[in-house]
Design a protein that fits this description.
With 193 residues, the protein is an alpha/beta fold. Helix content is 50%, strand content 17%. It has seven helices and six strands; from the N terminus they run βαβααββαβαβαα. The protein has helices at 15-29, 39-44, 48-58, 78-95, 111-124, 143-148, 150-175, and strands at 2-7, 33-38, 64-72, 75-76, 100-106, 137-139. Strands 1, 2, 3, 4, 5 and 6 form a six-stranded mixed beta sheet that branches. Helix 1 (15-29) crosses helix 7 and helix 3 packs parallel to helix 4. It is globular and about 45 Å long.
């Protein structure tokens, strides 16, 4: 099994990366492979098409996904929003039913709004949400600060354990003959007449 962790920060090795690394450690300890993909910095450089193409190609080899974003102006980074808009437009079918989680990294406020915005992508694509024991967030201005956020680090570790459990449960279900629901044609209601 494998989980793709997507870093929506402009900084490849900043606070969001530090939080994602804690999740990856827990997954790796349970024999689940991980990859941290730095989408935010690619989008910042104008490489959004490359980032979407590269991640779309990876979707066939992953079983779960975690999206991480720093908080800018009380919401996710513009880079991760652009990336996710494009990715979910191009690869929603490949994402459907993959367990997913989001994390937010902030100096202070805006984390719950960030999580809310990011989680909506998963809900639209019928992706089961994986939770920790509290809001999936860390606090700090630099990676060293995040490492000192004991509660935040514990939340990331618990999220990794919970993601592993969900993936293992799905795998066990498949082996027992439990099939995922079939996709249906969507009905769109237009409220404007």
């Amino acid at each position: 099994m494998k989980v793709l962790l997507i870093n929506g920060s402009r900084r490849d090795d900043g606070c969001t990366y530090t939080a994602l690394s804690e999740i990856a450690k827990e997954l790796n300890a349970r024999n689940i492979d991980t990859e941290i993909y730095n989408a935010g910095s690619m989008v910042l450089k104008g490489q959004v098409n490359d980032a979407v193409r590269e991640v779309k190609e990876k979707l066939g080899q992953i079983d779960g996904i975690v999206i991480g974003s720093p908080v800018y102006y009380a919401s996710p980074s513009g880079e991760i929003m652009m990336f996710l808009d494009r990715l979910f437009g191009a690869a929603e079918a490949e994402l459907r039913f993959k367990p997913a989680a989001t994390i937010a990294s902030a100096r202070r406020a805006g984390t719950t709004a960030t999580l809310d915005v990011l989680n909506k992508y998963f809900l639209y694509a019928e992706m089961p949400l994986v939770a920790s024991r509290y809001w999936n967030m860390v606090h700090g201005s630099k990676p060293e600060d995040v490492a000192k956020d004991q509660e935040g680090i514990q939340i990331m570790q618990k999220l990794g354990k919970n993601m592993a459990w969900v993936l293992e449960s799905i795998e066990a279900g498949k082996k027992s003959g439990v099939n995922q629901p079939e996709s249906e044609e969507r009905i769109f209601t237009n409220f404007i007449r």
